[in-house]
Amino acid sequence: MRDDADHGPAGARIAGDATAADLESLRKHSSVYVYEAPVRIWHWVNAACIMVLIFTGWFIGSPPPSMQIAEATHQFVFGYIRFAHFAAGQILAIGFLGRIYWAFVGNHHARQLFVLPVWSAHWWKEILFELRWYLFLEREPKKYVGHNPLAQTAMFFFMTLGLSFMIVTGFALYSEGLGQGSWMSFFFGWVLTWGGNSQIIHSLHHLGMWAIVVFMIIHIYAAIREDIMSRQSMVSTMISGTRTFKDDRRG
Asked: Assign residue 163 a region: left if phi > 0, alpha if psi is -120 to 50, beta otherwise?
């Protein structure tokens, strides 16, 4: 244990086993506050709802065998599965509306999920760069405070458009059970006729679930990969809201 103490970049006293190399590393770190609390809360609530919807949706599409554990009037297994699915879907829909609202009142990064700057030639060049980076064809990554252009595009198609599709088709299927004349049938019943019949909408809704599963796998892989290889925080950023850059490259 060292008796003396050094001072870090902000005047903080660094003691213990800190070496000169440790202090130099501290001087290279910089952080930017990116994601506000409502965005982070929505992210994790949204993730929890999607997980519930995936598992319960699987059982709704492929029901489990009847459980002969009691009289039919005393067991409600499939009913609980459907209730969990519907409840998670409604929470997800309300959260999505709140997320749209925050895109208007939040900071610049809160709007990235909803707007793609397709008119910018520079943005397209950075998409091509990110494709090469993810394919291990670039040696050094670029630094982004918010989403990089490729991640922004994926989020727009799989989250903004994907969730909108799943919410609309999900409420349409729910309205079928409520029957014609219900308020939900009034707002979403047209989807069933647009699709031809409810079975087609069921199939599209089910395929949408698998698209989101694939997106989640890629999203988790990319976040962990970037956290390690791009030398900037990813996973912890969606907890603290702060993006930390772990070197002094200009990016």
From this structure: alpha
CA 194 – CA 208 distance, rounded (Å):
17
Q: How far is the C-alpha of 190 from the C-alpha of 198, rounded, in Å?
A: 11
Alpha carbons within 13 A on the beta-carbon side of 23? 16
- Residue 120 CA to residue 105 CA, distance in Å, equals 24
Predicted model pTM: 0.83
In tens, the pLDDT along 179-233 reads 888 888 888 988 888 877 888 999 999 999 999 999 999 999 999 999 888 888 8
Phi, psi of 173 (to 5 degrees): -65, -35
Give the domains, in start order, of the chain with CATH numbers. 1-33 (no CATH), 36-245 (1.20.950.20)
For residue range 78-121, list pLDDT tens digits in order.
888 999 999 999 999 999 999 999 999 999 889 999 999 999 99
